[in-house]
Design brief:
Layout: E1 4-6, E2 16-22, H1 26-43, E3 49-55, H2 62-72, E4 76-80, H3 88-97, E5 103-107, H4 118-126, E6 131-135, E7 142-145, H5 149-165, E8 177-181, H6 182-191, H7 199-209, E9 214-218, E10 220-222, H8 231-254, H9 258-274, H10 276-279, E11 285-286, H11 293-309, E12 316-317, E13 326-327, H12 335-338, H13 342-348, H14 350-376, H15 381-393, H16 395-400, H17 412-425, H18 429-444, H19 448-468, H20 470-504, H21 522-526, H22 538-543, H23 557-569, H24 574-589, E14 594-596, E15 603-605, H25 629-646, H26 650-664, E16 675-676, H27 682-685, E17 700-703, H28 713-720, E18 733-736, E19 741-744, H29 750-761, H30 769-782, E20 784-789, H31 795-806, E21 811-813, E22 816-820
Amino acid sequence: MSEARTGAGPRVGVDLSVVVPAYNEELRLGPTLDAIVSHLTATEAAETWEVLVVDDGSTDGTRDVVAAVTERDARVQLIRGGPRNRGKGHALRLGVCASYGRRVLLTDADLAAPIAELELLDKALSEGHAAAIGSREAPGARIERRQHRLRENLGRAGNLLIRGLVVPGIRDTQCGFKLFDGERAREAFAASRLDGFGIDVEILRHFRRADWSVAEVPIRWSHQPGSKIRAGDYAHVLGELASLKGRSVRAAARSLRPADVLAVVVFLLMAVTLYAGRWIDPNGRYLPDSLQDQNQWEWFFAVTADNVAHLRNPLFTDFQGFPDGVNLMANTVMLGLSVPFTPVTLALGPAVTLGLVMTLGLAATAAAWYRLLVKRLVRHRGAAFTGAALAAFAPPMVSHANAHPNFIVLFMIPLIIDRALRLCAGTRTVRDGVVLGLMAAYQVFLGEEPLLLAAMGMLLFAAAYGAVRPDVARASWRPLLKGLGVAALTTLPLVAFFLSWQFFGPQSYKSIGHGDNAGNSPLALLSFAERSLLAGDPERADALSLNPTEQNAFYGWPLVLLALGIVVRMWERPLVKALGFTAVAAAVLSLGPEIRLPQTDLVLPGPWALLADRPLFESVIEGRVAMICAPVLGMLLALAFERLAEVPGLGTRYVGFLAITLALLPIVPAPLKSQDRPEVPSFIADGTWRSYVDTEAGETLVPVPLPDPGNAEALHWQTTARFGFRMPGGYFNGPYGEDRTGIYGAVPRHTSALLRDVRYSGRTPVIGEAWQAQARKDFAYWHAGALVLRPQYYDKQLRATVDKLVGRPGKWVGGVWVWDLHEGD
């Protein structure tokens, strides 16, 4: 490549560079340069602009024209592009890469768009856009002299093709009057490869992919005679577009760096390590910190597979909670995974399915956050990995990893955030809205509460970012609202039936309470979770949380201090301000409707009180709102990591990375605790129960005491028996009373409540005829065929109570005590 820049040479502090490509423009170039110089002399400071004319192998007096102007004004310079003509793209690339301006204006040599229109483009650039392109097709454009109708129609057809294939949303890519942010323009043109008229499309595509905002500005335009575009050039542009499309596919394949693959592999190893205790023997190991939730979730996956295999309604079952049944849609059975995993569940059992879903889901969630950070926030892979690891493996995520797949399988949330950000650009509003709607619909079948929390987090961030960047808010709110409307119209038809079943179907309920202490203590935000490897404090964590599965904060004071330091140090960035506000707001909301100040008797009203009684929010465990902080802290950490990596001073980098390490080490998670699960009694496992329960007659097997949220081992019996029998009681959410308030478990009856009291108190009650009569009524209501008691705490008292209720002693069969209710009929 041969090139030379003649004239005054580079200047420091150039504010505007005007690049003019020229090929055999001897006749038109002189008046164009005079007009440009005259306008810039009148409107720009004397030493802050330059005009670069790129001669692309002219054979006429083009260079002489430029030399004459340069003699009068040294700010006009000539760049020699070589001995032969290579095309507009080649010329523009040379000119932009040789420029020094904070802004770079591209204009054709014919000046079809008057130089005075620069003011309109400059206004758009000052509003925060990275590029402002003149448009002949945008509403408000004025065409003072039109091209020949054939050329005009060919141009419009080409634009339609370009919009459909490469840069949708831009009406006029080929207008030769564009203003760019200088640094971004130089980066884009340096990466470009096209030499012809397709360069405009290639550059705009680069800006789109980098998420640099492009504004299309209506301008005045007048066709000038002497155009260098020939009929064959249209075909050449189409060829360049085809080449560009092919390169984009190859570039996408090449963009997957080894570091990206390594990150995903490490995330998977982290998830496997976390669940190592279960994977030793998936069917024989239990996570004790899940309380009874592992039994419940295995049952959910198993019953869904059974419903699918037998073509039953996957939204309802009466295998537990008999005879009323269970509204599965109202119990977060994760149909988005439990249905696709049906073959695995049927072949390997629900314990393996649950292990796979939680392990792979957690790794996929980390990978999704990593993708979002690389695409939207940072380029440094180490920074993205660190931020994504914190987002996916933060203490509250590890806490829920014991028991709640719906709160750790969150790979759709980063995808939803990315698609919402696309809407703000206003490029493919309808398409992006449809895709967002499909994503939201799928997330509904993974977990509605995480979707609600994600929406809260995005709303907090949008409000904060809009406050610090009102220019971006003004440019984004219309396409965002339009896209959200399209998303809603896409989502609602897909989920309407399922949501109506959830909220109004059989065994639906209105809301469910979680007690008065479901919010976080302020100390929980600064303390360490039980499963933090180095700093875990089980006693303190237990005192500050509902249970081991609900340690929803526990980020640790070192990480909180580090995040505060990052926000202060990088306060100049609007993004950091918005992230800081989001983290603080989510943390405060998570404290609940009443904030109890530690070490005092002072109770302050919390902002959650404004939401606590609202529909949907009334069933949320408010402490979970602090989970929003995990990805936010991950993003702040990624930003700080990337800035440190760019700092030239070794000492500064050392201190910064040491601070990050010291903040993260205390919260590195330890593998989840696991233990051997109780064996299923042979009475159930070998099918002996079939001799006592006539399922053809609709009879049920009744465990003693009835399964409930405190003891749901009988759900494991039922999945082992492949749903051969139904049973009353259970662990699920259902309605209670005339107002259908949500409760955990089945509606208690006199006999079930009596047996539950004996189990927890160990006291044998006095049983008379009244209790026996009530028991007969309850047995009939449950369609009981047999009562089954396995050895457990207070089993002697339970056995004595059931002997008196039934009127005869039970029999020891297959490792359990059995009362056959057919005897004596």
